[in-house]
Design brief:
single chain; 147 residues; alpha+beta; four-stranded antiparallel β-sheet; 4 strands
Length: 147
């Protein structure tokens, strides 16, 4: 008599593995979305902090080409900036998610909801940063502050 698995036993094992995969794959996708949301919210908080520190140290923002890259390590979508120009934080899919407007007038950084795409990651990021009070005008200077 030969030892081994019968065809029925192998079919049961394959069915069980299929059921486990059907349960695990959506959970993996949800975990990836949660990680993207967490990273995005953290990036926005870091961006506000970096821009505030830059303005406080230099007395003005850098509006030259690549200015945001000189003011923060957070990757943003920007080309040529002028005072009051909006640039964007993008989710990994390349969707503009959060708008950032910087202005030397009182050293303001305005964080705004620019998702409008229905992206789950963008909606999650906007919800988290709204709940944490980041969607607003942040002021790092003004007439009462002297150097």
């Amino acid at each position: 008599m030969k030892k081994g698995f019968t065809m029925i036993e192998l079919i049961f094992v394959i069915v069980i593995l299929g059921i486990l995969a059907a349960v695990a794959i959506p959970r993996l996708a949800a975990t990836r979305d949660d990680a993207t949301i967490s990273r995005g919210a953290s990036d926005i908080a870091t961006l506000v902090s970096d821009l505030g520190a830059y303005y406080t140290a230099k007395g003005s923002f850098d509006f030259t080409a690549g200015g945001p890259a000189k003011m923060t390590n957070v990757a943003v979508d920007s080309t040529d900036l002028t005072d009051g120009t909006k640039f964007y934080y993008e989710v990994p899919t390349g969707t503009d998610c959060v708008g950032i407007t910087i202005s030397d007038t009182n050293g303001t950084v305005i964080i705004s909801d620019d998702s409008g795409t229905g992206s789950n990651a963008c909606e999650g990021i906007i919800t988290v940063i709204t709940n944490n009070g980041l969607i607003k005008t942040h002021t790092f200077g003004g007439t009462g502050i002297t150097r």
